[in-house]
Amino acid sequence: MTASLSPSPLPSGTRLTLFDLPLDVVTLEQALDLLGEWMFRRPRAPHTVVTLNPEFIVQSRTQPEFVAAMQSADLVTADGVGIVWAARQLCGREVPRAPGYDLVRGLMERHGPELRVFFLGAKPGVAEQAAQNAAREFGVQVAGVHHGYFDPSEDGRVADLVGASGAHLVLTAMGAGRQEIFNQYWRQVLGAPVLIGCGGVIDVLAGTADLAPAWTRKLGVEFIWRVGLDRRRWHRVPRLAQFVRLVLAERRRR
Ligand code: UDP
């Protein structure tokens, strides 16, 4: 299984295998350094970034295309404490967290006006708002915006639009699986040096979803706040329970 994993761009020994997925042992600062290097390096070459969370693991058990997209990613970070716990259980390693929101915010803070960002995803109007807010707060250049509710038959057209925008950074926020598969399949057309699948980040930047409170983020347990307070997320509880069962079963199996 591990043979199909793409080589890690990080020093050897820093890429783990969790189930059949890669996971890079990388701090937020190291990830930001690496992405900064990719974004401004010549010649430009596309790189995909996955911020792994428990739901990705559960969902990908029945979606081989999603597994393949994650296996081909150039960087896979631990989005939250669930992945940190699983890596401890199954690999005996401490993996630092580098959540999607922190990566995106960190890149905008570090690179501000030199950074061209394409905002792809969320409901119509939300990406525009996110782009306006990011331009105001961080001074980033808006390479383009597009909502995330288009038919798969439109994928090529949207990828061309992104490719023509000259973005350094593409935020693809179209839901778990869809966003990673899209980034991986279209990476050469998208062309931007960094393509991040980043779930609800456009909503948070737009202010249409709240960021979990700082204390939950510090402890890495923001999912408790998200699931607990948002009724629409209650359906996720069984998936998180399934994740715990999967990890424990895998540990027993070994
Ligand atoms: N989203 C999208 N297109 C879709 C499904 C979702 O653009 O077909 C957006 C959604 O509006 C939100 C983000 O993707 O901004 C994450 O959605 P959700 O929380 O449902 O996804 P998950 O947390 O399961 O990845």
TrEMBL record:
InterPro entries tied to this protein: WecG_TagA_CpsF
One function term, GO molecular function aspect: hexosyltransferase activity
Organism: Deinococcus terrestris
Keywords noted in UniProt: Glycosyltransferase, Transferase
Protein origin, superkingdom: Bacteria
Name of the molecule in the record: WecB/TagA/CpsF family glycosyltransferase
Transmembrane helix among keywords: no
UniProt KW Glycosyltransferase keyword: yes
One Pfam match: Glyco_tran_WecG
